[in-house]
């Protein structure tokens, strides 16, 4: 398991929580690698089965006009190679248009369907609140992804009468224990994971997305500095690196059905 950093604010205690399956929803290829690849590498190394769902094709990304005709194919190839570097081979795609993602019932139903199929212990997604400290974290597709997944997690996933055709197809309602957010505003951070042993795997995964980075060396310097800053905020020893999350208990010992 990842080395979770003790925090009075965090509801998640890795010493008592059993995690076997994690399902990650992000808006674009590469979002998950920037936000959580270190933690994911630690999970898979510990035997946790991690699945990805990429909600748009990333067709508006990139910087080189030469790539336009095959940008969707290119970004799928990049995501699959990056995922493999951190131990992930199960990748799903919703094929929404990049820049047009909205939390519609069509999207939410697809999210509910996949969560009920995989029945994870943790769903990880992007934060639905805008981050004014670093607006780049709050691409409209990021916000829409977080909102769609949050609406799916409660109440639709656990309501047998929401999207009844799913239950009729054999996908029974499911009570998700944990919802983890990446790209949260700093005021929402309540959980850090020490990923010092997985920094290289994370950076290797990010480097694979070369179509998105005209200055890969500069990107790597920024990411390393951010991870060190996360470690400092988490109270880790000097030189340690961390990833941060906003963790929400959806169904646990402190929650009451219907409240």
Automatic annotation (TrEMBL):
Molecular function GO labels: hydrolase activity, acting on carbon-nitrogen (but not peptide) bonds, in linear amides
- Cite the entry's keywords alphabetically: Zinc
Q: Which GO terms describe its biological process?
A: glycoside metabolic process
Gene3D superfamilies named in the record: LmbE-like (3.40.50.10320)
Pfam annotation, one family: PIG-L
- Record InterPro entries: GlcNAc_PI_deacetylase-related (IPR003737), LmbE-like_dom_sf (IPR024078)
PANTHER family found in the cross-reference section? LMBE FAMILY PROTEIN (PTHR12993:SF28), N-ACETYLGLUCOSAMINYL-PHOSPHATIDYLINOSITOL DE-N-ACETYLASE-RELATED (PTHR12993)
Q: What is this protein called?
A: PIG-L family deacetylase
Q: What organism is the protein native to? A: Paenarthrobacter nitroguajacolicus
